[in-house]
Design a protein that fits this description.
- With about 240 residues, the chain is of the alpha/beta class.
- The chain has two domains: about 120 residues, 2-Layer Sandwich (Transcription Regulator spoIIAA); about 100 residues, predicted glycosyltransferase like domains (Thrombin, subunit H).
- The chain contains five helices and 14 strands.
- The strands form three sheets. Strands 1, 2, 3, 4, 5 and 7 form a six-stranded mixed beta sheet that branches. Strands 9-10-11-14-13-12 form a six-stranded antiparallel barrel.
- Helix 1 links the parallel strand 2 and strand 3.
- Helix 1 runs parallel beside helix 2.
């Protein structure tokens, strides 16, 4: 029988620039707040782009009062420029809760594995991106090909590129285009980003593009806008 006693742990591997999280048992807000405190101490020792491996394979249940704290942990990792996140999971109530929760909010995109060894293999095989990918519900996106305007739906977005579900013409691989991201007006963050990009992948209904002309300052502006977007208040289930 699996124990319901909650256990959480955060460990920083400074040499690998990784944060290892372990969450098990039936977890409530108090337990997750303790984990959040430990995470803050660990992240202080890591560099931007750090990797997170979150082993929640033995987490049976997350009480509803823990979901706001879980979101707070997610937002903290984003604000501190996490590079990639892998969740080690099993088919538990907790896993289904988290999937249901993250489907309803703006957040980062996560890789999944069933064992720690599989998580390590996936990380080794994954091409490192310049920034984590975000799943957003908000911004509208348009793209211009040969002076013709098209629109689409944003699948995911990072400071180095994006994936778009197209409503019109699908550009060819290697084709260059202009992408326009439109956010709500904000006092401190830009509401529009116009970016030159090159198509790196295309199917019959969507394509992925790599950004070409975002300098460091503009990348930071985009990242901070994304931090703001995923940190917005949400109506928790």
């Amino acid at each position: 029988m699996v124990s319901s006693q909650a256990k959480v742990k955060a460990v920083a591997d400074i040499a690998k620039n990784r944060l290892y999280l372990t969450i098990s048992g039936n977890v409530d807000a108090k337990t997750l707040n303790a984990l959040y405190t430990d995470i803050r101490f660990c992240v202080a020792d890591l560099q931007p782009g750090f990797i997170v491996i979150n082993d929640s394979s033995a987490c049976n249940l997350m009480y509803l009062n823990g979901l706001p704290v879980y979101k707070k942990i997610m937002d903290y990792l984003v604000a501190n420029k996490v590079g990639e996140i892998v969740r080690v999971v099993q088919d538990t109530i907790s896993h289904k809760q988290i999937l249901n929760f993250t489907d309803k909010i703006q957040c980062y995109k996560t890789m999944y594995a069933e064992q720690l060894e599989e998580a390590e293999r996936k990380l080794a095989a994954t091409r490192r991106r310049n920034g984590i990918r975000f799943k957003l519900n908000g911004p509208s996106i348009a793209y211009t090909i040969n002076n013709q305007n098209h629109s689409g739906t944003l699948v995911d977005l990072s400071i180095s590129g994006c994936a778009i579900e197209a409503e019109g013409t699908i550009p060819a691989v290697a084709q260059e285009l202009t992408i326009v991201l439109l956010f709500d007006n904000h006092e401190h963050h830009p509401s529009q980003f116009q970016i030159k990009a090159r198509v790196v992948r295309a199917t019959v209904s969507n394509f992925a593009a790599q950004f070409l002309d975002l300098d460091n300052d503009r990348q930071e502006q985009l990242y901070q806008r994304l931090v703001y977007e995923v940190g917005r208040n949400v109506e928790l289930p």
